[in-house]
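Onboarding guide, step 5: your first structure request.
Type a short instruction followed by the sequence, for example:

Predict the 3D structure of this protein.
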Amino acid sequence: MASSDQDLVPLLDKDGVRLTVDDALATVTLTNPDKRNAQSPALWRALTEAGRQLPGSVRVVVLRAEGKSFSAGLDRQAFTPEGFDGEPSFVDLARGSDAELDATIAGYQEAFTWWRRSDIISVAAVQGHAIGAGFQLALACDLRVVADDVQFAMRETSLGLVPDLTGTHPLVSLVGYARALEICVTGRFVTADEAVNTGLASLAVPAGQLDDAVADLTSAVLAAPRDAVIETKALLRGAQDRDYEAQRAAERQSQARRLRDLAGVGD
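The system replies with structure tokens like these:
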């Protein structure tokens, strides 16, 4: 990375989230290591705001976390009767109407949706525990590079809940239905080797090499022309919903746009 995250003036720094931008590279850092970067509605709002504040020049967003754990998941204060100060408790949410409950959860999900925007590539640098909401936040990104001490776990089902922060779709897409089901209903840990072998992670490295590995990956992404990266991302994302012939057609259409653009010929 061209500059250290700590050397840059943050565009956002609140509620456990810091956003810095260095030209085409943005870094979103979880900044509450004393609580293992446990998550709360305030943190989710800050993550949503970080996405909205990204300048148009940004091509790659790195998500990282301070301390030994990426994120231990939802702050356990959420499970107390009083919940978080100024926030509805779980009991309050349960007493609301279906529409109110749906709108509240949809608001929480906004923190997890923007990472797959068509105009950026997002990379999660994950070390230590990434549990529940932490696992889902890592899954929200396009790519994951992990330290060899990583421990993913989806613990919501064990608590009588379900994963509801957008993690189920990418998990099934990456590892398949059966393994995703087994990971979720058992709540077991997924370690670095399994993460790489099943496609959850692109690469696993010793913890001390995580930043350098992510820097190498982001440099490689930034070396490719932006428009070609955007077109390729859209082509691959759409492949999940197309059959073979439809994907062939999409490839032809995408390539035609690229050739015309390179040749300076309008549609």
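Each response can be followed by summary notes, for example: The chain has ten helices and ten strands.
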